[in-house]
Amino acid sequence: MLPEETPVALVYNGSTEAVMMATPDDLEDFAVGFSLTEGLIGSPSEVDELTVLHSESGIELRMWLAGACANAYRARRRRLTGPTGCGLCGIESLTEAIRPTRVVGAGRLWQAADVAAAVATLGERQPLHQKTHATHAAALVGHDNGAAIVREDVGRHNALDKLAGAIARSAVDASQCALVITSRVSVEMVQKAAAIGAPLLIAVSAPTALAVRTAEAANITLIGVARHSDWEMYTHRNRIHLK
Questions:
Q1: Domain edge (last residue) among 36, 67, 97
Q2: Domain of 206: which CATH number?
Q3: N- or C-end of the chain: fewer Cβ atoms within 10 A?
Q4: Would you say residue 12 has pLDDT above 80?
């Protein structure tokens, strides 16, 4: 079995904001999550209408934003067309690449064993990856290390955006939870985690130096290279009880 990879256009008030190569599943979550993590909306209620349109050339996620959001969107509109999950292609200025990141709350204390358990939880809940070995995943893990929500996609950014949308649409509080991702940690992944409001980000691969600096500024505890019981912690170590 091979995963599908389809052009997905995110269209706001009749204008295309982005065209991403994505797995054509959980598209409503993708639309809302991308809108949230890109700062186009503050909550799902600010999307007045969402329609998924399929065609021979791909899929359009057509959204109509509420009044204030519509006005703000017109003021900052840009066009972005990128390959799998690309989060920076087509931006109009350098300041957009390193935009201010939300500072998350204190969260709660986690035990060292919780980190390994969270990674194991995600590994057990990737049905598409288990069939194809070709997709990324992102999960929201609660205090009992049960994966409340998991989303998969061929693109790592897309998987996290889908998760962001699912969290928001379900009105789940991420402030006491951890995000677990199957990819490396670039700055965009930290920015998306901050937009979600999760104080702990765990990745199976390593972060970039900019991602570490961004996590430090956003008050996010960043853990990378998380494999079984081994992992590395880069920022805000006070959230992890090591003894």
A1: 97
A2: 3.40.140.10
A3: C
A4: yes
Is residue 89 part of the annotated active site? The answer reads no
Q: Choose the catalytic residue: 69, 86, 89, 177.
A: 86
Position 21 in a domain: yes
Indicate if the pLDDT at residue 83 is higher than 60.
no
Is 1 contained in some domain?
no
Residue 85: pLDDT over 60:
no
- Judge contact between 219 and 103, C-beta under 8 A: yes
Q: Give mean pLDDT, residues 97-106.
A: 84
On whether the CB atoms of residues 138 and 159 are closer than 8 A, the answer is yes
- The stretch 52-59 carries a mean pLDDT of 96
Buried b (16+ CB within 10 A) or exposed e, 122-146: bbebbebbeebeebbbbbbbbeebe
| Per-residue confidence (pLDDT) for residue 145, from 0 to 100 | 62
User: Which one has a higher pLDDT value, 159 or 15?
Assistant: 159
* Residue 187 belongs to domain spanning: 110-241
What is the CB-side half-sphere exposure of residue 79 using CA atoms within 13 A? Answer: 4
Please tell me the number of Cα atoms within 13 Å of 81 on its side-chain side.
3
- Number of structural domains the chain divides into: 2
Q: What is the pLDDT of residue 155?
A: 96
Same domain for 146 and 82? no
Say if residue 122 is in the same domain as residue 81.
Answer: no
Q: Which residues pair with 241 in a beta bridge?
A: 111
Burial 149-169 (b: 16+ CB within 10 A, else e): bbbbbbbbbbbbbbbbbbbbb
Contact 82, 58 (CB under 8 A): no
